[in-house]
Design brief:
The protein has about 270 residues and is an alpha/beta fold. The protein folds into two domains: about 15-155, Type I PLP-dependent aspartate aminotransferase-like (Major domain) (Aspartate Aminotransferase, domain 2); about 160-270, Aspartate Aminotransferase, domain 1 (Alpha-Beta Complex), CATH 3.90.1150.10. The protein has helices spanning about 15, 25-35, 60-70, 90-95, 125, 145-155, 160-185, 210, 215-230, 250-270; strands at about 45, 75-80, 105, 120, 190-195, 195-200, 240-245. The protein has a four-stranded mixed beta sheet with strand order 1-2-3-4. The structure holds pyridoxal-5'-phosphate.
């Protein structure tokens, strides 16, 4: 997305043709695909809170609708919670929005900084995995003891109190950025879900990839440069989330907001 390349070289068109892509937050489009392909759809996979096009929250009813459509068509719902799992709370996005997927994919947070990936789901589906079932899943480093130990140590530190603190810190950052942008007269929308945040250089929060793509990349680039010059490092892409971590203190938020005030002003001035 950052480089404007829609695909990766080397992916067999045959494989691509077996994946149907529908816009996020567009239940009608999902319904359309179901009515065309009916019982030929194996599963619907979604990031319950999209965080790879900047942070885009699910509209009210979107996840519920996906769940209902999949159930009606006897199809699985897979939540890709690689980012949201253990970030939006101990139960991830599925607990936050109260939707039960059939399968869940996890990674990132659960590795405590080490490489990891995991999936899980309803018992009858997991019984299909070897040795009980015919689906073979393994890898050289699967269940690597070091990653498992780091992940276990990480998860032991997570508590409801910690998530409440993350909410407060992230809320303070989002409000500070909003006020800083307003003071500088910068046209942005600040989107936050839990400790995930994106500053979009467009006037309203995007609901879809098409809307996210309309951000002012040039302004973002100059904002990023101005922040970096002030010692604040944000993701170098307008389509990545900022992550607020347990290590961020209120003073870090204040420093970031102060730098953002100057950066928003610098971006505004450089357009004159
Ligand atoms: C990072 C990421 C992945 C990829 O995870 P790997 O463990 O690196 O394969 C998948 N889904 C989402 C939403 C991600 O952000």
């Amino acid at each position: 997305m950052t480089l404007g390349v829609p695909d990766s070289a080397g992916v067999d068109p045959d494989v691509v043709s077996r994946t149907l892509v529908v816009p996020y937050n567009d239940l009608d489009a999902v319904e359309g695909v179901f009515s065309t392909y009916r019982d030929r759809i194996a599963a619907v996979i979604v990031e319950p809170v999209a965080a790879n096009m900047g942070v885009v929250a699910p509209e009210r009813g979107f996840l519920e609708g996906l769940r209902a459509l999949a159930t009606a068509h006897q199809t699985l719902v897979i939540f890709d919670e690689v980012i949201t799992g253990f970030r939006l709370g101990l139960g991830g996005a599925q607990a936050r929005y109260g939707i039960a997927p059939d399968l869940t994919v996890l990674g990132k947070v659960i590795g405590g900084g080490l490489p990891i990936g995991a999936f899980g789901g309803r018992a009858e589906l997991m019984r299909l995995v070897a040795p009980e079932g015919p689906v073979y899943q393994a890898g050289t480093l699967a269940g690597h003891p070091l990653a498992m130990a780091a992940g276990e140590a990480m998860v032991t530190h997570l508590s409801p109190a910690l998530y409440r603190r993350l909410e407060r810190t992230a809320g303070r950052l989002a409000r500070g950025l909003r006020a800083a942008a307003d003071d500088a007269g910068a046209t942005v929308s600040v989107v936050r879900v839990g400790s995930l945040l994106t500053v979009f250089f467009r006037d309203r929060p995007p609901h879809s990839l098409a809307e996210a793509e309309t951000v002012d990349r040039d302004r973002f680039g100059r904002f990023h440069t101005a922040l970096t010059a002030r010692g604040v490092l944000i993701p170098p892409s307008p389509f990545e989330a900022w992550f607020i971590s347990a290590a961020h203190a209120g003073s870090d938020v204040d420093d970031t907001v102060a730098a953002a005030c100057a950066a928003f002003a610098a971006v505004a001035e450089s357009t004159d």
